[in-house]
Design goal:
- About 30% of the residues lie in helices and about 30% in strands.
- By secondary structure, it is α/β, with parallel strands linked by helices.
- The strands form 3 sheets. A 9-stranded mixed beta sheet has the order 3-2-1-4-7-9-8-10-11. An 8-stranded mixed beta sheet has the order 12-14-15-13-16-19-18-17.
- Strand 8 (about 215-225) and strand 9 (about 230-235) form a beta hairpin.
- The protein is globular, with a radius of gyration of 25 Å.
- The N and C termini lie far apart (about 50 Å).
- The mean pLDDT is about 95.
Length: about 400
């Protein structure tokens, strides 16, 4: 951490140039004798990124930012707040602290939080920032997290881990054993210090593969922000030996959409032809694979086993997008003339062609108020649903 960055003159410069194009700013000569110009520019870029992702940090004076990549990789405030409200207690230890956004919110639910970070410079930055944020119940410890566990030798109510992929694992199928720390291998070791763990993983991790690697999984939270899956949260309880609950959540500015079911439990979908309304599950549900459960819980007709689109005669509240079906047409040349040279928003579900090829083939421009779903019905016919968004 370069303390010259924290001088008033440098901080004023950063705040005054937060909206300036960084490529143009980089062409200027360094106006400071003490501060490193590259680091000053790095602060501006990272703070620009934090404006929407980390508004609390952005609004707080004298925050020191690590690299732009560290800010990009950290949890957003809405997802950090969500995960913090799932657990509470006296003591939590975070074995992979990073920029500390999750711990900022955990500190609201626990009397004491320990932030472990192997990168000494990042640990110093986080400690400094918590002082600016006026958070007094987080201790920042630099060094190997296992050494910290051994030294403290105490029981924690919760342990939090955000494993990072090893460099040599990039490009391979994402497995927890390819991450640091190797949670599946060390799980029994962690149970010496806690009975409850929360593991955060990237959404690319396959749920079935994760359940093969891990044991004692009580629930899996699939967390989406504005319909983009951001993370999977694995809640592990030492004595748990039943099937896990799958909890999907989509955090939006207006509401929180949730949908739950028990993994590997039996659900029977109902199938039918398009009716008056069309339902498209949100991204968290799509990740979960609970497609038959959607049909059963909401009493909706599924269009096809692989289409993952649903329909009903009357509109209902639903965790995803809802459309009024204005017209259903077969995917034939004659009927497709309706869309030629028109504007439409195109989605494909269980359909042999891509959005790009459909636009090119039928000369359909992007945009407008028409939403076209190219899909397959229960009789394996290719159809197009022309819809209006509710």
């Amino acid at each position: 951490m370069d303390h010259a960055i924290m001088t008033k003159v440098v901080q004023d410069f950063i705040n005054q140039n937060i909206s300036v194009d960084i490529s143009k700013l980089a062409l200027q000569k360094n106006p400071f004798t003490e501060a490193n110009w590259t680091l000053v520019l790095q602060q501006i870029v990272a703070k620009q990124k934090a404006e929407s992702k980390l508004p609390t940090w952005f609004a707080t004076q004298n925050i020191y930012y690590p690299s732009k990549v560290s800010v990009e990789q950290t949890s957003s405030e809405p997802t950090a707040k969500y995960k913090s409200e799932l657990i509470s207690g006296e003591k939590l230890i975070d074995l992979s602290g990073g920029f500390g956004v999750d711990d900022f919110y955990f500190a609201k639910q626990f009397k004491e939080v320990i932030h472990c970070e192997i990168d000494a410079d990042l640990s110093e930055i986080v400690r400094h920032n918590f002082e600016q944020l006026k958070i007094a119940n987080i201790s920042c410890v630099s060094g190997d997290s296992e050494a910290t566990l051994e030294r403290l030798n105490t029981k924690f109510d919760w342990m939090y881990i955000d494993p990072s992929r090893r460099n040599e694992a990039k490009g391979k199928v994402f497995m927890l054993k390819d991450c640091l720390p190797n949670v599946p291998e060390k799980l029994d070791y962690y149970f010496r210090f806690t009975s409850n763990l929360m593991i955060k993983t990237a959404p690319i991790l396959d749920i079935t593969a994760g359940l093969i690697e891990l044991k004692n999984v009580k629930s899996i939270h699939i967390v989406a922000l504005e319909n983009e899956v951001k993370e999977l949260l694995w809640i592990i309880e030492k004595e748990w030996n039943q099937a896990p609950e799958i909890i999907t959540v989509n955090l939006t500015k207006e509401k929180i959409e949730t949908f739950n079911f028990v993994w590997n439990s039996v659900a029977t979908a109902n199938y039918g032809q398009p009716e008056a309304y069309l339902y498209e599950p949100n991204a968290a549900i799509m990740k979960s694979g609970g497609f038959d459960w959607i049909s059963m819980q909401f009493n909706l007709q599924k269009l096809h086993p692989h289409s993952h689109l649903y329909t009903s005669e009357s509109v209902i509240a639903f965790p995803g997008r809802i459309f009024k079906i204005d017209q259903t047409i077969p995917y034939h040349k004659l009927e497709m003339k309706l869309l030629a040279n028109q504007k439409a928003n195109i989605t494909v579900r269980n359909f042999p062609d891509s959005v790009e090829n459909i636009r090119k083939k039928w000369k359909i421009k992007d945009g407008g108020n028409c939403y076209c779903f190219f899909t397959t019905d229960i009789n394996n016919h290719k159809i197009v649903l022309l819809c209006s968004k509710l």
